[in-house]
């Protein structure tokens, strides 16, 4: 079966972002960008399904600026077969992304779509679920285990109180949680080979999708800074401070 | 304006997060209706009717909603939600699972994890692991929103007397089925609702050593959490994880033991009122957010602290 893996180019998770002085957003000029960590897990899961003989072809897709080709090449180096870039310079909301992905799903007809559960920049946790609604496919969100069995996929999900397993009819949508797998690194020969793999570039207009949004960001501020704390010398001093100064115990 | 709040419940009881979500709805203003969708969920519906400020409780009691499968619940919420100005759910694993599906069915954007209500159409939400706070405005006909519980003080669970009305739901969509679940058992307070949280990280070295934290937590009546490092190393189950990808907590007191304080962990706890860090590395980033820091060996300090309480 074919697997589609949507990925996102985001600021590297180790970067401590700074809010712009004019409060229009965070400063992303000259900041290291990477593939969203949850998307790496999604690519890894697709590659493992291929290695097990379950998946036949892996297509990776991203929606973003031209520079997002770097992340597509990374995914190709990790084992994806071909890539699609839906080029859009604007920052799009999840619904617009889901609509674009739906157009790609209709074209590619994957049996399984694997996305990350959330992007670490917008922290929305929406796209996979929205794609589920638009395509009418079942969804297995926050997956920590994925097993394809015949025309169904069993997904073990991380829920607030523990784990839950659901059986979904294929085609289905899965969003990855951190514990699904440990993503591999791309080897140098594979990075070289990835340069020759096919990468198509399309536009939202070509897919016939409007990316208009009903939500706009008015401003972005730095969170309130915590006032500097103190180091205490002993446990006795700590207990005394918690009891008498902070009054929390 | 009428607001629909999707109740978080276990069929038998209402989850605490629902009270925070109703509090957010009260800040928006307008009539508040609560939807309890489940199977044999009469008790949860009764509890919802008693919540202060709730005008009406809609009960969709149907076997198809027993495990809140989004393929079944989302169409119900989308259909009911059309007449409302806002649809709110708690940003729990359940709310996050269902609500974006509802929003897409209604063809509107969703606003995730709001921490403040500025006005009926303007909200604040954290982005970049809590390193920036965005103020967003929605012009959608139906505003679909998940609410971060720690951003709102819970509304009183008693004092209301809402009318309870049964609504008919759709049948099972037949796309998904519940197979089973494995819930972690704990007698301690629930992590997201606890007044005090004691968390351990990689510095705990193994799962057995968490007994020091359990002893401390039991003295304080606290919940026990963990960093991702501790969960990945298999010390404790993943539902104990505090952070961007785990649970968001904002207790009165958060005690971080053997936790370095990575960005992703801070995203889950930096709104705690008082933070205490116990770590042997005095350069650890956790000390930059801690109100009280104690540098030293946790295996000596934690039992000493437990003994003094």
From TrEMBL, chain A:
In its keyword annotation, does this UniProt entry include Electron transport? yes
The keyword Plastid belongs to this UniProt entry's keyword annotation: no
SUPFAM superfamilies hit by this protein: Adenine nucleotide alpha hydrolases-like
Signal peptide (UniProt feature, chain positions): none
Domain (Electron transfer flavoprotein alpha/beta-subunit N-terminal) spans 23-211
- Say which domain of life the source belongs to: Bacteria
Which cofactors are named for this entry?
AMP
Could you list this entry's UniProt keywords, alphabetically sorted: Electron transport, Transport
Record GO biological process: carboxylic acid catabolic process
Q: Which Pfam families match?
A: ETF (PF01012)
Q: Name one GO molecular function term.
A: electron transfer activity
Describe the function of this protein: The electron transfer flavoprotein serves as a specific electron acceptor for other dehydrogenases. It transfers the electrons to the main respiratory chain via ETF-ubiquinone oxidoreductase (ETF dehydrogenase).
State the family it belongs to. Answer: Belongs to the ETF beta-subunit/FixA family.
**Oligomer and partners:** Heterodimer of an alpha and a beta subunit.
Q: Which PANTHER family match?
A: ELECTRON TRANSFER FLAVOPROTEIN BETA-SUBUNIT, ELECTRON TRANSFER FLAVOPROTEIN SUBUNIT BETA
**Protein name, per record:** Electron transfer flavoprotein subunit beta
Organism encoding this protein: Aquipseudomonas ullengensis
UniProtKB/TrEMBL annotation, chain B:
The domain of life for this entry's organism is Bacteria
SMART domains (alphabetical): ETF (SM00893)
Q: Which UniProt keywords apply?
A: Electron transport, FAD, Flavoprotein, Transport
Question: What cofactor does this one take?
Answer: FAD
Question: GO MF terms on file?
Answer: electron transfer activity; flavin adenine dinucleotide binding
| Domain Electron transfer flavoprotein alpha/beta-subunit N-terminal: start-end pairs | 3-182
Residues that bind FAD, according to the entry? 202, 227-228, 241-245, 258-265, 279
Q: Which CDD domains match?
A: ETF_alpha
State how the cofactor is bound: Binds 1 FAD per dimer.
Q: Give the UniProt record's GO annotations in the biological process aspect.
A: fatty acid beta-oxidation using acyl-CoA dehydrogenase
Q: Name one Pfam family in it.
A: ETF_alpha
**Classification via Gene3D superfamilies:** HUPs, TPP-binding domain
Which family does the record assign? Belongs to the ETF alpha-subunit/FixB family.
Q: How the protein assembles, per its UniProt entry?
A: Heterodimer of an alpha and a beta subunit.
The entry's function note states: The electron transfer flavoprotein serves as a specific electron acceptor for other dehydrogenases. It transfers the electrons to the main respiratory chain via ETF-ubiquinone oxidoreductase (ETF dehydrogenase).
Give the protein's recorded name. Electron transfer flavoprotein subunit alpha
Annotated source species = Aquipseudomonas ullengensis
Q: What is the organism lineage in this UniProt record?
A: Bacteria, Pseudomonadati, Pseudomonadota, Gammaproteobacteria, Pseudomonadales
């Amino acid at each position: 079966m074919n697997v589609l893996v949507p990925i996102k180019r985001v600021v590297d998770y180790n970067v401590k972002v700074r809010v712009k002085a004019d409060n229009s957003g965070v400063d992303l000029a000259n900041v290291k960008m990477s593939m969203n960590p949850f998307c790496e897990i999604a690519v890894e899961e697709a590659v493992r399904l291929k290695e097990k003989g379950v998946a036949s072809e892996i297509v990776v897709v991203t929606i973003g600026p031209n520079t997002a080709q770097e992340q597509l090449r990374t995914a190709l180096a990790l084992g994806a077969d071909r890539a699609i870039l839906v080029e859009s310079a604007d920052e799009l909301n999840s619904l617009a992304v889901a609509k674009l992905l739906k157009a790609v799903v209709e074209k590619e007809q994957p049996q399984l779509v694997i996305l990350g559960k959330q992007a670490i920049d917008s922290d929305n946790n929406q796209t996979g679920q929205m794609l589920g609604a638009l395509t009418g496919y079942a969804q297995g969100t926050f997956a920590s285990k994925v097993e394809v069995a015949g025309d169904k996929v069993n997904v073990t999900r991380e829920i607030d109180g523990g784990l839950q397993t659901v059986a979904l009819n294929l085609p289905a949508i899965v969003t990855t949680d951190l514990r699904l797998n440990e993503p591999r690194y791309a080897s140098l020969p594979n990075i070289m080979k990835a340069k020759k793999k096919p990468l198509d570039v399309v536009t939202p207009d070509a897919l016939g999708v409007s990316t208009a949004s009903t939500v706009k960001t008015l401003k972005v501020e730095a969170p309130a800074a915590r006032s500097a704390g103190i180091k205490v010398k002993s446990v006795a001093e700590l207990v005394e401070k918690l009891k008498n100064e902070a009054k929390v115990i | 304006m009428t607001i629909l709040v999707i109740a978080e419940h276990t069929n038998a009881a209402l989850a605490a997060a629902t009270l925070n979500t109703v509090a957010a709805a009260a800040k928006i203003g307008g009539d508040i209706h609560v939807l309890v969708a489940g199977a044999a969920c009469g008790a949860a519906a009764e509890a919802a009717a008693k919540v202060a400020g709730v005008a009406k409780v809609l009960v969709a009691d149907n076997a198809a909603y027993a495990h809140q499968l989004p393929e079944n619940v989302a169409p119900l919420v989308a259909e009911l939600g059309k007449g409302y100005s806002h649809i709110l759910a708690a940003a729990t694993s359940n709310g996050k699972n269902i609500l974006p599906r509802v929003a897409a069915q209604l063809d509107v954007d969703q606003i995730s994890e709001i921490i403040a209500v500025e006005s009926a159409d303007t909200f604040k939400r954290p982005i970049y692991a809590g390193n920036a706070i965005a103020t967003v405005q929605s012009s959608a006909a139906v505003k679909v929103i998940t609410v971060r519980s720690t951003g709102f003080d819970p509304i009183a669970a008693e004092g209301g007397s809402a009318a309870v009305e049964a609504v008919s739901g759709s049948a099972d969509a037949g796309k998904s089925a519940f197979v089973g679940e494995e819930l972690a058992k704990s007698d301690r307070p629930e992590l997201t609702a606890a007044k005090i949280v004691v968390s351990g990280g990689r510095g705990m070295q193994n799962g057995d050593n968490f007994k020091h934290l359990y002893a401390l937590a039991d003295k304080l009546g606290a919940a026990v959490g963990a960093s991702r490092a501790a969960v990945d190393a298999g010390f404790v189950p993943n539902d104990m994880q505090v952070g961007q990808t785990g649970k968001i907590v904002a207790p009165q007191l958060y005690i971080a033991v053997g936790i370095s304080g990575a960005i992703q962990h801070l995203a889950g706890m930096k709104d705690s009122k008082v933070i205490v860090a116990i770590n042997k590395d005095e350069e650890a980033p956790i000390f930059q957010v801690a109100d009280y820091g104690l540098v030293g060996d946790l295996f000596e300090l934690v039992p000493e602290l437990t003994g003094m309480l």
